Amino acid sequence: MRFLLVAAAALVLMSAPSASAQNSPLRKGEEKGPIELVFTQQASSMKFDGKTLTLEGVAPSTSFYADRPQQTTGYLTTAQFVKLWTASQDSFKNDPPNAALSFVGDKDAEPVVVELMNVSGSGDTLSYSVNVLEGKLPDSAGAVNLVIDPWVWQPASWGNGPFLNCTYSWYWRTRICRGAW
Known about the structure:
Keywords: Signal. With about 180 residues, the protein is mainly beta. The chain has one domain. Helices cover about 10% and strands about 45% of the residues. It is built from two helices and 13 strands, in the order H-E-E-E-E-E-E-H-E-E-E-E-E-E-E. It has helices at about 1-15, 80-85, and strands at about 25, 35-45, 45-50, 50-55, 60-65, 70-75, 100-105, 110-120, 125-135, 140, 145-155, 165-170, 175-180. It has a 13-stranded mixed beta sheet. A hairpin with an 8-residue loop joins strand 7 and strand 8. The radius of gyration is 21 Å and the shape is globular.
């Protein structure tokens, strides 16, 4: 009986990933082609003057994720996100994304779909030149959430690229990234 208990404990310990493997760098073969990253931003309020959407009280980081087949999650500082706007040939500047703006806490407000033409920012304020595609943007509102269409990222070998540094978490079974600037 004691032998079975010791054998079972040994089997459990051998099958558990080691702590150093929890956040090991990506290995060759784990990155298979481009990944479409969806970005999200939160702000405590917004203003719209007919052409420019201004987000105020913007969170200091812009989160992103990609779903299957290559689950990825991470963040950029909001300043890094602004730099990313023009950072490559495949940038948002050359292929403006659509975005959905949701109004947090206002259960009657419908999300508004916009095309984001340009971005500028300072401190906790971001301004986007926008074309409204669907819905009606109010002149102002309280807390908002902006979900931005995918940007295609091609990871280099070992999961790092010119914009992101990534590791693979065996615990979460996903790639976890942060801005590389």
